[in-house]
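ok trying again, last paste got cut off:
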Amino acid sequence: MNYEDNPASIKYYVKEYLLQNKADIKDKIIVDIPAGNGITSKIIADCGGIPMAFDLFPEYFRIDGIKCQQADVRNGIPLSDKSADYLICQEGIEHFADQFSAIKEFNRILKKNGILLITTPNYSNLRSKISYLLSESERFNSTMPPNEFDSIWMSDQNLNKEIYLGHIFLIGIQKLRVLANISGFKIKKIHPTKIKTTSLFFLFLFYPFIFISNYYTYIKNCRKHPNNRSRQKTYHEIFRLSINIRLLIDSHLMIEFEKISDYQDVYAKLKSQFTEFGTT
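nice, full thing came through this time. structure:
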């Protein structure tokens, strides 16, 4: 079975997303980075979209008729400002050392109201939280914590002089939300993926404590700023994400963001809200 036809694979859910939005993506420029073997780029083309494929290792791209260009997000994607309608970053953000710069780069090449779809192993589900508590690994009783042997995934110097880092930079929903927010994006939709049975088991054990703890923290912080509606709105969004059952049990994060402004404009707005170090 192909990965894109297997509900255990995130490629299945990305394919379903593209098929469901087929009418919207027709004739639209859709950046696929990292493009991997090219399956998603092919689906984009089959749906009538215009795929722009990029990868650190384009030699692994296997789809005829679609060109995959070499690109390192750290050095910028070779596209003009505001030239793309969609950008799909499928299982890539957890490999980027500078995730903030990567999301700002995504913002740069997307048009206003453009869509950024990010998928990544769900570091916010309960299995991942327990794994980090027990050993700081991705999967307890299964994998070692990140290290210089297991975390180097691709270093065939005959093909490419780059080194591909594994899941060293796993990211949860809260950090992903804030990096996207201060880069000019907002969450448009959280798409469900495959349920992790281990996380589902932990949900029955821990959910009351999760709810009570996050609610207490939410109320406590809202009371510190009773007249700041913008801050309270942000706190409420964070609280809702903290108690979202699907985020606690799904195997992958699949978040659809919408570009609402250029990141430079967000910076200008944030400057007026900065507080000095050591103040509250």
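cool. The beta strands are 29-32, 50-55, 68-70, 84-90, 110-121, 152-154, 164-165, 185-190, 252-259. The chain has ten helices and nine strands.
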